[in-house]
Amino acid sequence: MEGIFMYIRPEQIAEQYEMEVKSISKGRDCFLCETDLGMRALKEYRGSVERAEFLAGMLDFLKEQNIVAEQIFYTKEGEIFARDEEEQNYLLLSVFRGAECDTKSREDMVYAVRLLAGLHNATEQYPDEVPEFVKMNPNALLLLYEKHNRELRQVRNYIRGRKQKNEFEEMFMRQFAGFFEKAQAVTEQLQNMEICEELTGFCHGDYNQHNVVFSREGVAVVNFLNFSYQIRVSDLSNFVRKMMEKNNWNTSLGMELIGAYDSVRKLKPQELSYLYFYLAYPEKFWKIANHYSQSHKAWLSGRNTEKLSKVITQEGAREHFLQTLAGKVENRI
User: Fold this and answer.
1) Where in the numbering of this chain does the Aminoglycoside phosphotransferase domain appear (predicted)?
2) Could you count the other beta carbons within 10 Å of the beta carbon of residue 249?
3) Which of 77, 116, 238, 262 is most exposed, with minimal Cβ within 10 Å?
């Protein structure tokens, strides 16, 4: 019975739009609808009406700027949301069929960062006032890293109090001091940084290989639902970090990606400094520790130990990359 309900619900939502639905299937975090107007995606959305309408307007603006990006469609009643019987809101978005950015292809990755720089250039031309509810706290990164540091200490204290430690816990305790020292160093440097208004702007919010699609319509950027208005290099740092983790922190690749972005949108000295701080924080070490903290400790899988071991193994290559990036920062300043 539950399966029938799950099938009926997206149909009822889709009926609220001016389109003829041919079939509906379950996609990644959405319902994929094959329609007479092409493929569409129904996605749950928990934000406000104002936030959704701002995003729809920004996506329309990006289209005018020749950026291939998803679009949001309004219902028959002119509403930004459709609602199911449980009052859950949904957005209807366009879908691009194609291959995601290949994390083993330098050509794909370089194209993706150039595209990101072009997207940031385009949003700088946005003519309307940016509403306050979109803007993030200027000190958001500092506050985030201070929170991460507290969480790392909590995990350390918990494990230290355990009499019998498993393999993961022993490994974590051996590595904690070194990684935490780096985390603290980045946080302390951020405390001395001043954020200029010119560093902030519209950000995708989750720019990664999954959200860059090489389609027939062009190379498209999708999944803007986590968009924000903050320091622009947060997008670049997120993408570069993910690509570097996939490629053993290859220094030449990392510098090529940063250079490719810089060739389209010139990075200011302070932006380079922030990029360094984003990448210097041991994010992956914190992420593994946080997953451990949220999990049932007795059921901890060997996969966590493998991930921690990989982070430790890659740290030398990561440090080499960061030293090279630091040199670029100093030269630009």
Assistant:
1) 34-257
2) 21
3) 77
